[in-house]
Amino acid sequence: MSMPAFQTGHVGLNVTDLDRSAAFYQSVFGFEVSGRSEQDGKEFAFLAQDGTLTLTLWRQSEGRFPTAQPGLHHLSFQVENLQAVQQAEATLREIGATIHHGGIVPHREGASSGGVFFEDPDGIRLEIYAPDGAGDRTAPTGSAPTCGFF
Question: What is the pLDDT of residue 22?
Fold first, then answer.
């Protein structure tokens, strides 16, 4: 029996402030709120792109995302070209998001692919990248993947 083909569906994230996080993901990614609950103890928002559920936000946590513990390392989103990454970077700077590596960088020294590495309001690490166009930039570390260490 062969294994079925798996494809990522939506991703669910715990957040501390549903309004703040929904506004962040709407600003940076252009996601639309396709469903929401404000019921006490069961607050959530469904975020969609072109009618497809992409991200769910669950208000079930306090504090900041613990990068030193096992779990999600980062969440990555691919865009068509470097201009789209540059648009995202401009939005991130405008809203005061934490950006790592100083801005857009390649995935490793000599790679053409690259992007911007940043955090959401709860410290969840995110990446927006393009498959090419970043090769003229310097990588933060020549010997390790950029997305692995931020």
Answer: 98
Q: Cα–Cα distance between 4 and 149 in angstroms, integer? A: 32
Extract the tokens encoding 108.
């490793």
Quote the strand ranges of the chain, DSSP E.
Answer: 11-15, 32-37, 44-49, 52-59, 75-78, 99-106, 114-119, 125-130
Which residue in 120, 23, 148, 116 sits closest to 64, CA to CA?
120
Does CATH place domain 75-148 in 3.10.180.10?
A: yes
Domain 11-59 in CATH 3.10.180.10? The answer is yes
Total-model pTM = 0.93
Q: Which of 149, 143, 107 is nearest to 128 (CA)?
A: 107
